[in-house]
Amino acid sequence: MEKSLSEYINESDMLVIGIGSEWDWIKKGIKKDLRYQELRKYCDEEENAWLWPIVEFEYGYYNNDERIDEAYKGLRKLVGQKSYFLVSDLFIQDAFLNGFEEEHCVYPCGNYRYLQSNDPEEELIEVTKSEDFQGIVSRIHMIINERNGILGEEETFYKPFFDGKLLYLNQKREEYSKIKYNERAYLYYWDKYQQYLSSTLGKNLLILELGVSLDYPTVIRWPFEKVTFINKKAHLIRVHEKLFHHTPEIKVKTDSIQMNSVNYILQESEGL
User: Which of 52, 35, 33, 36 is nearest to 44 (CA)?
Assistant: First the structure.
């Protein structure tokens, strides 16, 4: 890359940021924590798959990743006063906790804030409003901390209900493949994001894609490539340990960096 990231940002008029799986500290952390092995095996059974998203919720609620927090803070310092919009295909809305304004972020694949029924037309329910859900989370936490993750021989979990309806975390994920995803939580911000993208045409636009996998390519990867191709003044920086390649059509307008994107931001923001 000819310039530093801060130089590219300083020379831009507007900035679009994509955050992906390399920033998902919950999935990475829970995989390394041996206390969750029995729960993982339990949830591998098809009839118990519904529980794993709640197990991840428990891990995220009671833990954090200081390295990820520092990376978000460093990224926010790099952005400075530039006009920006951040889009992420994660469920963890860490950006809000580390300096990014909610009005300039969108999480179209879900969140850990709300629960939903199987009816996408119904109102979302805050996780704190469901006693059933909170009870399951507390029980998982007890199993992890008091029993070191050991399940009883006849361990059974019951799905959370609210007003007689089954509840699920408001997330678009494999375990919920038969559930109709409720889009209420993000549509307002998605509209703002689309308006923002429209306003970038003809502007010096820097598109920064950080650790985005192919799980949801229609959310970040392909749209980012399309915008880079259409906007003559756009420049794409794609950073990923493995999926760093770009399409030939945008070769001269793209920097592909083979590196962990969290490490990249920590490196580029050092000393700010």
Answer: 52
Strand 254-258's sheet: what is its strand order?
Answer: 105-106, 83-88, 14-19, 205-210, 234-240, 254-258
pLDDT for the residue 247 = 86
| CA 101 – CA 78 distance, rounded (Å) | 15
Strand (E) or helix (H) holding 150: none
Q: What are 180-227's pLDDT values in tens digits?
A: 999 999 999 999 999 999 999 999 999 999 999 999 999 999 999 999
Q: How many residues does the chain have?
A: 272
228 dihedral zone (left: phi>0; alpha: psi -120 to 50; beta) = alpha
CA atoms of 260 and 145, how far apart (whole Å): 32
Half-sphere exposure of 244 toward its Cβ, with a 13 Å CA cutoff? Answer: 13
Sign of CA dihedral 30, 36, 37, 42: negative
Chain segment 78-108, per-residue pLDDT in tens = 999 999 999 999 999 999 999 999 999 999 9
Type of residue numbered 128: T
